[in-house]
Amino acid sequence: MTGFPIYRPRRLRATENLRSLIRETSLSVKDLIFPLFVVPGENVKNEIETLKNNYQWSVDRVMEAVDEAVELGIPAVLLFGLPSYKDEEGSSAWDDNEPVQRASKAIKAKYPEMVVITDACFCEYTTHGHCGILTPDCASVDNDKTLPNLAKLAVSQARCGADIIAPSNMMDGYVATMRKALDDAGYTNTAIMAYSAKFASAYYGPFRAAADSAPGKGDRKGYQMDPGNSDEAMREIALDIEEGADIVMVKPALAYQDVTRRAHETFNRPLCVYNVSGEYAMVKAAAERGWIDEKRIVMETMLSFKRAGAKMIITYHALDVARWLKEQ
Questions:
Q1: Structure pTM?
Q2: Which residues are annotated as a binding site for 5-aminolevulinate?
Q3: What pLDDT sits at residue 132?
Q4: Known catalytic membership, residue 198
Q5: Binding-site annotation: residue ranges
């Protein structure tokens, strides 16, 4: 390659219009998915202490957040629910009268074009905080006994309007089970976004407080992946695609961008990353102390996810990012 002084890279960096012409990766509001927490009760808007500027919403008020997302052009929301009751199985997860199902109906009634994604797991719904039915000794989750409940959960959420079911439970065979249940119930157009590469991460801490989903005993290392395992992540993604996943995900996003890049280069499926609660909380804490420029840090981070190969980004920064993009 011809070098200096014939080739001067700075020629194309001199103005914003020149830089925009050669920009390789860009960020759009259409890349964003906004997570929302819905809870029982009425007139509830509780700020989540561990997730500043994010709230727990009752169904009668959640449209305030959805209205803002629509105004800003965000195309999708991801619903997490705190139920009105819990039991050992997590049966409230497939109750059509619980907050996630009711919120889905309300959103689709007002905004039919808004993509409603529903989290499909049991940690918020079980008394023990694990992602399925426990073995008799309570030492682990019984994978195969949990699968039929995941089928019921998927069908309930689809029946109430979910466009995409997002199972985050990490059970073996979960995608195939939910795909068959959805198809048998007539919901062949309901997509599955699989949490295919979900790691047993310390970055989830603030979320567990927000969703009241911390395990009462033990941990989730028996079904979430070890943080050191990139090859295993590729195997998990391949399995989920074989079972019918329409979209695959890497979670968390920031510390696993090597996995995102490998997934992007290896698989022909839309790829999502989850910019999780711990990643968000660290930025907020540093910004509050004046240690960083929050806008620049967040926008650079979002762009890095796209550069690594993500097609879509779940992030608690969604409203801020949408506003900043609009300003640009």
A1: 0.91
A2: 208, 220, 277, 316
A3: 74
A4: yes
A5: 121, 123, 131, 208, 220, 236, 277, 316
